[in-house]
Amino acid sequence: MNYENIVALERKLSLPETHFVSGNVYTDKTIFETEKSKIFFHTWHFLCHESELLDKYDFRTISFLGQPLIIIRGSDNKIRSFLNVCSHRGAKIIHSPSGNSKKLTCFYHLWSYNDRGECTSIPREKGYDNANLQKRLCGLTEIKTDVFMGMIFISFNKKIMPLNDFIGNSLDPFKDTLCSGELEVFHYSKSTIKSNWKAWQETNLDLYHEWMHVLLRKTQINAGNMKDRKVKIMPNGHAMVGGLKAKYGAYKGINYRQSSKALPGLSSDDFFFVDLFPNFAILARGTAIRIDTVTPIDENTSLVEWRGLGLRGDTSKDRRLRWKHHNQYWGPFGRNVPEDAFAAEACGEGFIKSASRYQIIAREENGTGQDDGMLRAWYKEWSKLTSLNINKP
Ligand code: FES
Ligand SMILES: [Fe+2]
């Protein structure tokens, strides 16, 4: 396409350089490769909640940017992650998404591994004697794994800062809830969206877009004073928003939420959220918690995973109610998450053929109201790690 909108260029030139993002940032293959090495294989990445690996020998398998992984709770209760590939001929070992097993046996020639990743059995092992193959050196490749407030993270970077330092105080508002030891994942859904991964993450950083959601227009925009909202920018590209309140009484059909059972540490009309750089968001809405993670598949396609957390030990009646609360906003047919996915794909459509050349992140409201400060802080960290300029990448 050879078409320039002169007015659009002029509009852009009047903005500070930190206040707009070039469309190339979303579509360029080279930039995407840089993001993989400098961001995704460099920093910490959320995998799942510890309630998804509750018992010894519980495991889950996932694919992270093409790397097959297995994550398992050991006999010592420690959670470890390994590349899910056999040391023999490289086959992917475990193919089921989850299970419980003391022994991880490769289907191909039946080499086996234990919960520490050690190779424990090689059929007709003597056949390797002449070649001096040593079983003790045939273990799985371990990936750095740590747990923070019940959430399991991995990093492919052996020199990465400790997870505690990476997160710092960012999740303090969730401490009483996440550390209560009473939470479990009660909802999981995922979707592949046709959009660059950042367009999804932006839906968790952009306060201004609450206008899009009818439910938020009714229960949130006028629920409190815009000036009471507090955007807090934290180290390592993380950010949080507090001071929001939900006025469930303003929407017919969900007004009963106001008096429902909140999770430990929350009141039923609380709403706040934290974004951890690069691809994680956690949101508290009184009676339920949502965690989402976006992982790129390629520069134009992304996997978004949503988890809902509620109280372990809920009665079936309470559980049904909590599911309902969660799904009203955040379920696959709720009034919030599917609309965000639509918005991310709409931005993807705008950028993919360069019809849209850049986007504006220029709202300044002193860290209150619908300030774009979280978006700018996120892109500042992105630039720091990739060494790329957001508007002239
Ligand atoms: S490839 Fe796994 S046992 Fe041969
Ligand atoms: Fe949204």
Structure report:
The chain is α+β, with helices and mostly antiparallel strands. The protein folds into two domains: 115 residues, Rieske [2Fe-2S] iron-sulphur domain (Rieske Iron-sulfur Protein, 3-layer Sandwich); 217 residues, Naphthalene 1,2-dioxygenase Alpha Subunit, Chain A, domain 1. Helix content is 23%, strand content 28%. The protein has ten helices and 19 strands. The strands form four sheets. Strands 2-11-10-5-4-3-6 form a seven-stranded antiparallel β-sheet, with no helix packed on it. Helix 6 crosses helix 9. It is globular and about 75 Å long. The structure holds FE2/S2 (inorganic) cluster and fe (ii) ion (FE2). FE2/S2 (inorganic) cluster binds next to loops.
